[in-house]
Amino acid sequence: MASLIFWLFFFGLVNGAFAVLPMFTMKYGLSPDHFELHTSFFTIAIGAGLLVGSLMGSVLAKR
């Protein structure tokens, strides 16, 4: 049980690092004028990557 909680905590940290931090970087550093547009494109790319990765992972796990 402790191992499951640890990995969920670890996944939350990784998810935050890859999803939230780039959005703050865009808002306050890279593109403060158009960060809403860039954030929506970034979110679509992250979602597509997670979907493709989970599909590929399930296919590879069946082998």
From TrEMBL:
Keywords: Membrane, Transmembrane, Transmembrane helix. It comes from the Bacteria. The keyword Membrane applies. The chain crosses the membrane at residues 40-61. This is Major facilitator superfamily (MFS) profile domain-containing protein. It comes from Bacillus safensis.
